[in-house]
């Protein structure tokens, strides 16, 4: 197996210089660096990160615990995390907590036992055990997408403001009965999107009607039931907002089953844009989150924490964009 000594001999430099090039621990003259990299390529040298971790107590790895990895929204976040980690020279260990608090605690412990340098976690609706674990063991952690309270590093997208803008848009189009299919209770995103919904109604002078708010539990099946429940009301909504992309699918399935056509019979708008939202008929009006940017921002925040363990915690909120298409009843634009 090729060693640093072999690389040093081929490049005509010291082993220390090879180490500085490989580990980026000290500036090296460009021509010397080029000679070392050429020798590495020629000899097929592979850096032993495990051996280095024994010296530095760092594994240059990040644990990522995100539920519903098959969800397009989280898939794009994963791409952002991976890109940010790779750019910084970190590997990624991924686990799916399935939005189950007990499984979440176990997953975080397993990642910690793999000696990751820090973690990025999208917490469940009841994350107390997991938060207690990382807090007591002082595991550098960034909470992603969902907030757990003050005192932690966190990255999320704005939720209340964008939903308020959707409600106002629908109200301006003449809708006075606007329903919301909300997400899983206990999630900060659910709380904030309901808050935005109520703020939008208030801004347009519309009363809040409890029968127009239904829980879809952040999943397609729950949204089907919630949509049917909304439309069974004595005065059903003429427009519905769904609070994530999975629930949008469920709502569309329920509307189709009831023989209703969007937007002819009912307007629809959703939180979470996705790559095929523009391919639906009608095209879906949606709130687009900066998914990849959320992932890269979480990595940057974690690396800042690793560099300065005692700095004050930060919460970063990224803006969303309302993408107007035709499912809300707006005409096609050229």
Radius of gyration: 25 Å
First-last Cα distance = 62 Å
CATH architectural group of the largest domain: 3-Layer(aba) Sandwich
Q: What is the CATH topology assignment of the largest domain?
A: Rossmann fold
Task: Please count the beta strands (DSSP E, at least 2 residues each).
Answer: 12
Order of helices and strands: HHHHEHEHEHEEHEHEHEHEEHEE
Highest-level CATH class of the largest domain: Alpha Beta
Number of helices: 12
Q: State the CATH superfamily name of the largest domain.
A: Response regulator
> What is the SS-derived class?
alpha/beta
How many domains, in number, for the residues?
Answer: 2
Structural shape = elongated
Describe the structure.
- Helix 6 (101-113) runs parallel beside helix 7.
- The strands form two sheets. The protein has a six-stranded parallel β-sheet with strand order 2-1-3-4-5-11, with helices on both faces.
- With 334 residues, it is an alpha/beta fold.
- 44% of the residues lie in helices and 15% in strands.
Entry summary:
It is built from 12 helices and 12 strands.
Topology:
Elements (H helix, E strand, L loop, with lengths): L3 H8 L3 H9 L6 H14 L5 H8 L4 E5 L6 H16 L3 E5 L5 H13 L4 E4 L6 H9 L4 E4 L8 E5 L2 H13 L5 E5 L5 H16 L9 E3 L4 H12 L7 E4 L2 H13 L9 E5 L13 E4 L2 H17 L7 E4 L2 E3 L11
Helix pairs in contact: 1-2, 1-3, 5-12, 6-7, 8-9, 10-11
């Amino acid at each position: 197996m090729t060693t640093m000594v072999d690389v040093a001999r081929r490049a005509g430099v010291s082993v220390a210089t090879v180490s500085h090039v490989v580990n980026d621990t000290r500036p090296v003259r460009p021509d010397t660096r080029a000679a070392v990299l050429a020798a590495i390529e020629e000899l097929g040298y592979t850096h032993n990160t495990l051996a280095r971790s024994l010296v530095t107590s760092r594994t240059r790895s990040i644990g990522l615990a995100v539920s519903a990895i098959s969800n397009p929204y989280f898939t794009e976040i994963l791409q952002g995390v991976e890109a940010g980690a790779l750019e910084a020279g970190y590997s990624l260990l991924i686990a799916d907590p399935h939005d189950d608090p007990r499984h979440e605690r176990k997953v975080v412990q397993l990642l910690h036992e793999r000696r990751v340098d820090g973690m990025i976690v999208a917490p469940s609706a009841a994350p107390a055990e997991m938060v207690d674990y990382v807090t007591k063991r002082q595991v550098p952690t960034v909470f992603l997408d969902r907030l757990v309270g003050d005192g932690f590093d966190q990255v999320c997208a704005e939720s209340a403001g964008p939903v308020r803008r959707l409600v106002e848009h629908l109200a301006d189009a003449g809708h006075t009965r606007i329903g919301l299919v909300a997400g899983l209770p206990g999630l900060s995103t659910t709380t904030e999107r309901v808050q935005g919904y109520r703020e939008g109604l208030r801004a347009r002078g519309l009363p809040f009607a409890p029968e127009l708010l239904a829980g879809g539990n952040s999943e397609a099946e729950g949204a089907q039931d919630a949509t049917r429940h909304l439309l069974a009301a004595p005065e059903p909504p003429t427009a519905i907002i769904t609070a994530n992309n999975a629930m949008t699918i469920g709502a569309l399935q329920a509307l189709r089953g009831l023989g209703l056509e969007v937007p002819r019979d009912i307007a629809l708008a959703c939180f979470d844009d996705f790559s095929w939202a523009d391919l639906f008929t009608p095209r879906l009006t949606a709130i687009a989150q900066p998914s990849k940017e959320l992932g890269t921002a979480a990595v940057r925040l974690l690396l800042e924490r690793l560099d300065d363990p005692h700095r004050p915690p930060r919460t970063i909120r990224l803006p969303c964009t309302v993408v107007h298409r035709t499912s809300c009843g707006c005409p096609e634009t050229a």
